[in-house]
Amino acid sequence: MVKLSAELIELAAQYTNPVRDRELDLRGYKIPVLENLGATLDQFDTIDFSDNEIRKLDGFPLLRRLKTLLMNNNRICRIGENLEQSLPNLKELILTSNNIQELGDLDPLASVKTLSLLSLLRNPVTNKKHYRLYVINKLPQIRVLDFQKVKLKERQEAEKMFKGKRGAQLAKDIAKRTKTFTPGAGLQADKKKTGPNTADLEAIKNAIANATSLAEVERLKGLLQSGQIPGREGRQGVQSMVEEEDEEEDEIERALHTESEPMYEATGGDEMEGVGEEQENGEDRDDEEMEDMHVNGS
Known about the structure:
about 45% helix, alpha/beta
């Protein structure tokens, strides 16, 4: 991805397009965020942001001259509020092939009273029920929607559908907005504040007191800024070494026990018992012979 910088704007192609508007070509740079557009010095009628990675349509400075925005083939899912203040003369907005999901996500465009051409083709929102009539009702000045001219019959249908209390309720019911997640939002309140315990504070004090050089102080500073406690690694290391030694002893015992069983089976349990019985019988015969010799001698 490429940051939209003043240097990029200065180096981008600039030309007079077929309808004789001055156009700035920022197509295909994989730009993620709209920013630094003040560097255009409001010298363009059209800006082409096609084929980028833009997610939100906002970040415009005051650009009085800008009439056409080409935003097709991006990842836009949100439209910023108060666009009419930044783009007071915007007439054409091409949002083909983006990711706008809900009808309510289009509501910020209602304040852009100058908008006369809008394309939302190949956005999920176009599959919503009453999509076209909803847009015509929200943007009554729109003349071309999705490259189709808005007919008088459609205007009448939209007015009838969303007229009165029932129409207002219908518009409210279908105007759901996409829920967006802001990183960190909702987590800070739930997260309990924690700090170093007494042992950690003592370790920090000892580490500072034992520092012998500026480099050591800088190293301690880096550890603390990253949330690490000096000395904690040593305590954890000793504990882990003891645990590893205990695990090794257990493994050795299990290995010896496992090896003894196959050896017993391999030699044959019955044979071992037979050898034992033969030894016992031999000892009995030796005892009997000794007794006979003693009797004969006497």
